[in-house]
Amino acid sequence: MERSFVAKNPSVLVFLALLSLFTLGVTVLSEGFGIGVISTSFVKTLGKTLCLCLIAVAMDLVWGFTGILSLGHFAFFGLGGYMIGMWLMYERTRLIVVESLSQADIPPTPVEVVDAIGTQIFGVVGSSEFPLIWAFSHSLTLQLILVVVMPGLLALIFGWLAFRSRVTGVYLSILTQAMTLALALYLFQNDSGLRGNNGLSGLQNLPGVTVSQDVVSLWFLWASALALGLGYMLAAWIVSGKFGSVLRGIRDNEARVRFLGYSVEAYKLAVFTLTACIAAIAGALYYPQAGIINPEEMAPIASIYLAVWVAIGGRGRLYGAVIGAAFVSLLSTWFTGGQAPDIPLGFYTIKWVDWWQVLLGVSFVLVTLFAPQGIGGLFDLYTNQRHPDRHGANLGPDEGALREKEASL
User: Fold this and answer.
1) How far apart, in whole angstroms, are the C-alpha atoms of residue 181 and residue 162?
2) How far apart are CA 314 and CA 324, in angstroms?
3) 23: closest CA among 212, 228, 206?
4) What is the model's pTM?
5) CA–CA distance, 289 with 218 (Å, rounded to integer)
6) Nearest Cα to 151, choosing from 60, 48, 270, 278?
7) Which helix (H) or strand (E) covers residue 292, if one does?
8) Residues 220, 26: contact at Cβ < 8 Å?
9) How many CA atoms lie within 13 A of 252 on its CB side?
10) What torsion, rounded to 10 degrees, do the Cα atoms 147, 150, 153, 154 define?
11) pLDDT tens-place string over residues 19-63
């Protein structure tokens, strides 16, 4: 009898339970709930960290399980933020413009309202007209659809062109990085339609919502936790079935999987597009909590950081990706926020704000060389889930079949 999904993946229940307890604990201790032990700014930091954990899960699917080292997934993360940010900025500006024009003796026409909104949004780049990309910015429903459609379409087109050409390895990583750089450079231009390097700001202010940021931060924390929980379950379901077995086969020996008759390119394209959509959803929840998004957020270095998080946490383990993203993100906030004490050496003072990235790079190198299984490997040791040593085991079903040691000669 085939075991159920939960029976195959007991760690999923453990993860969901810990995530629920974490969310409940932060809620009770937050200022929005009334106790005030945890500040609103830190609640936002925790909510953003959950979003980074979600994109780390997506990265683990495409890299840890499929072997595609994508250095462009933060481009999809940023696109998701831009799509929801367009509605937030449009609707907030519309409410301000309508309230301002309503005080005039003659009621404004719809055309005048739209022109005033355009002037408010695009005046910073010397324009007042809405670009074509803002055609659906007035509709929350359509923009939420675009959160998934736009990054998914970009990933589909890019992946189809790359995978059908059978680009693999470091060359594919370079291509994904080039895609991210090209998109970021385009968005830096004022005529991109997304306000150039000014980006979209004021995203933390939900249109029509009169409650305080203390409560709004909790809403986003809950939404981020829900998205992470659902994303983790989806990823675990994928890797526990036949689809996941094929992905691991592609990672370990792509040529053999192709020889067995599987469409390797189709599997790669499917997982690349799916993880792009997951990354976009994470970005759509992240940037309203950050309050601003600009093209610098999509710089290639961000995608490199993402790979570092997954490597430190332990790629090929979904919980490892979450641990790596949460650990590095919170530690980065502590170091770069000036909370870590400087270390005076007499002739030089180590300021962690300046040295944090060096520390992160050194940690990545050390993990790669001495602990390739990452932090997640420590949990495997604790739970005795280490991979069995099959050296010398029979490779065939019968005694006396070719043995592993002989096969390596």
Assistant:
1) 17
2) 7
3) 228
4) 0.88
5) 10
6) 278
7) strand 292-293
8) no
9) 9
10) -120
11) 999 999 999 999 888 788 899 999 999 999 999 999 999 999 999
